[in-house]
Amino acid sequence: MSVARSSVTVKTPSRPGPGQARVVVATARVFLLRFASNPIMVIRGPLGPFLVLLTFHLAYDVSGQEQVAGLDATGFLVVGMLGTLVWSSTVWGAGNALQAEIYQGTISAVVAAPQRLSSVILGYGVGSMLFNLPALAVSIVTGFLLGADFRIEHPAAALLALLCLYACCLCIGIGFGGLFLLSRQSNALSNFLQGPVYLLAGFFVPRSALPDWLHLVSDVLPISHAVDALHKTVLSGASVGQIWPQLGATALTSLIFLAGGMAGLRRLDDVVRRRGTLDLL
């Protein structure tokens, strides 16, 4: 006696809608609640950037270096710190979203839900960024206390550059989401990427100091251009019109990461649902 296999395929929405927006909000809320229940994480979040900034400031001060690439050294470090905070939201939030669900034992419910996996990844990224807002505030206050020379002549331009920084990192997070899951070594991969990105994106060392071939590699990263735009608006008083090249490069490279990530996640989502290979993740 043979049993006929079902040919029913579960379809999930291919376009953003109210349901997916609710998934993003709910995921971000759960993410924040998990961290809020851990006092050590709540304390470490704002304290970490303060200690890192203080360490780099002392190193630059001892060496007598007051400027970096023609910009105020302390201000340059503060912008770099903001970049690391947003990047950590990408790597440890959005990028590790699905791996975190496996660790929590809830991946079955996530995959069974009639929504795309990208909504969960986006929710993790948003939650991580919200969690890092106190650390961002501490970084800015620390910069003022250390004498950073901020020259924001166009606040709208600085805000736009900061929003682009957050947006491009969400795109990177979606791009890495499926890759991290399939690697089965998301923590190791996250740690591996952290150091090179700090260098390539110009967080604490100006990109102008990189060799030409390495500068070309850094141009592939959306966050590199977003940080460049933030440097110009916060430390040089640039207007929106003066940072359009950086914003355009950020948008273009972000779309590449987003398109690749969405295609990979859609394929992963469909294969897992159709073949029932959840146990292989």
Overall outline: globular
Largest sheet: 2 strands, antiparallel
Q: What's the β-strand tally?
A: 2
CA-atom Rg in angstroms: 20 Å
Portion in strands: under 5%
Helix content: over 70%
Structure, explained:
By secondary structure, the chain is mainly α. It has one domain (20-280). The chain has 12 helices and 2 strands. It is globular, with a radius of gyration of 20 Å. Mean pLDDT is 80; it is low at 1-10.
Describe the protein's topology.
Layout: H1 18-36, H2 39-63, E1 67-68, E2 71-72, H3 73-95, H4 97-104, H5 107-112, H6 117-131, H7 133-145, H8 155-183, H9 186-200, H10 212-218, H11 222-235, H12 244-275
Antiparallel strand pairs: 1-2
Labels describing this entry:
single chain; 281 residues; mainly alpha; two-stranded antiparallel sheet; 2 strands; globular; disordered N terminus
Summarize the structure.
This protein has 281 residues and is mainly alpha-helical. The protein has twelve helices and two strands; from the N terminus they run H-H-E-E-H-H-H-H-H-H-H-H-H-H.
